[in-house]
Task: structure prediction
Amino acid sequence: MATTALTPTSETYRRSWVIEWLTTVDHKKIGILYIVNSFAFFFAAGILALLVRSELAVPGLQFLDERTYNQAFTMHGTIMIFLFVVPVLSGFANYIVPLQIGAPDMAFPRINALSFWFLPLGGLLIFSGYLFGGAAAEGWTLYTPLSGGKFSTGVGTDLWLIGLLLVGTASILGSINFIATIFKMRAPGMTLFRMPILVWTVLVTATLILLATPVLAAGMIALFIDRNYGGSFFDPNTGGNPILWQHLFWFFGHPEVYIVILPAMGVVSEILPVFTRRPLFGYRAFVHATIAIGLLSFSVWAHHMFTTGQVFMPFFSFMTALIAVPTGVKMFNWLATLWRGSIILATPMLFALGFLSMFLIGGISGVMLSAPPIDFHLQDTYFVVAHLHYVFFGGSVFGVFAATYYWFPKMTGRRLNEPLGKVHFWMHFIGFNLAFFPQHILGIQGMPRRVADYSPDAGWTLLNLMSTAGAVLIAASVLPFLVNVVATFINGERVGDDPWEGNTLEWATSSPPPAHNFDKLPPIRSERPVFDLRHRHDAERVSVAKVEDQ
Amino acid sequence: MTVQVPTSMSADTTTHTALAHREAGMPTPLVGMLLFIASEVMFFGGLFASYFNARAVHIGEWGPPAGAPELEIFPIALPITIILVASSFTMQFGVWAIRRGDQRAMRNWTLLTLVLGVTFLIGQIYDYTQLGFGISDGAFGTVFYTLTGFHGAHVFGGAVGLTILAARASQGQFSKQNHVAVEAISIYWHFVDVVWIALFSTLYFLR
Result:
């Protein structure tokens, strides 16, 4: 019998790094591809946001005409949501989830690569509208009849639909992969209720993607047929119904909000225990709250449609307010975790605390909007813009940066510079609040969203100027971040395998991990196996001390 | 502060990962296929919702536009429905054959299923030419062609899968123990069949 080398050296497979990264099926490399690609789209969409804010800084049209302005805010919203926040969190999940459950890779590595490569392709298709007479300009929600063939004649809208269908397909394939991985690839001892919270939130998120995205795909295909083949799904003149688009869009769109926030909640729930030196308070309650949010998210979509007069408001209002209950449970868990903890204010922790405070504001304004009388008043005003940015930016993006600072040492073996990280955090935090808090007041004063100009007599000038200043500060905060990432990558402090004294399995292997992730695993007897391993002799010491006392 | 966990592990506290992942319960590819079908259910759910919405807001009698003949289950729709339903049975006989280890019978059943599926598609395309209305002829035309068209595309996808199964069976790639692809494609084929039954009942009987 021929002997087979059980541990082939990496030299066997050596090839140029370009080919390696283009063809990789390693979940860690794909995760990094996701993250880098997402940040590229983040910067592009950020520039669009700066254009929007520059135009709004003072009354009058200075930089953009209305058409360009409409394209700018449409592309900003679309790219930020579909090509930054969702995929960047998928990227971290791709890297971390298999490690946290002690698996060697995802369940379907090649499908994993496919779902990544659809993303840059889809994103470029959406952007390519600019080359063919103008990108989509109907807002990221693409409401009919405005987005129908009669009022949006350019191919930008069609490219938007095709690109987003690709991105949606990628998310569906990715979610199948995550669910199969989490159910089939866990290491021995990793029972469901020993899974790290991030894994739980990714599991619920993937289920939401799996069940919500196809409905949007059906809607986008219907709109494409209306625009290109003379269909009448959304055209009332030929027997269609424009409100149907809103139903299909928001049946996806509201679960989408939780798709974006749940993994960020997972990230924060990984970081708080490590930087307070306490276990997460109420692990099981947290898991049940996550599942409850996932279930409830499918029964609230029509709260975006109160003003259409075609939805049953008492039901959707009640269900929307009900989501505050499991979310409140989580907030309680986080605060109770902080309570009497030995808090270490490192940069990941700062961003996690930023998440808690900013997401709280976004959550409260969300509950306000769930009440139809308030919603009727504030529909399509800047209050809604402020609310959604406190959830997406104050929530998810703070979570993304927390994850970046927390797991950068895992991915590279080097820790991001702490002073620069703190400069980044404070610029980001102050800039964010300066940019978006005034928008609450603007909205209450009646300033509508998606307008390129406003009257100098409206009394909105000062608050708009503050908001623009905040946007500039956020943009400036990217500079210390980028410098930090590049400098650390080249010449950062090497901090070993487990610089934060983590609890979960990703810290039980080297940093960065080998291609197969683990040579050996510690025994998994709780949701904190690495903590248990680190303190495995403490229990003996305590019992010995007790015996000596007696 | 740094604890070098991997190097500080002693042998008695560790298990080997490479050997630890045993297959238990449902095979992973089947899990993937079932999840994919869950997403497909939601996709067709969106299309069916569009159908019922168009029907709900429609004024006047629901059906093909004025001037076009009434939708009839003969001579095409009912026969191709029976053919597609029969193909689910032939598919399942193929699955049972490979579970016994009879690869030859499995290949023949798969080929018969493929022939029935393709017959369905040809029948449907012929039916399209006889209907007398198009996708742009009002709400009924739009939802009729969108729903049946996407179902047809799924039948086509299934036919590609069946072709691959038959080719792999000819190469002798399946056995009693190792035939997860057959199981996965069969589940998909049954799903496509069920969608058609729902679609056929909705379009032709729910009037």
Q: What stands out?
A: The helical segments of chain B are 5-8, 28-57, 73-100, 103-130, 138-170, 180-205. The two ends of chain B are 73 Å apart (CA to CA). Chain B touches chain A through 47 residues (CB under 8 Å).
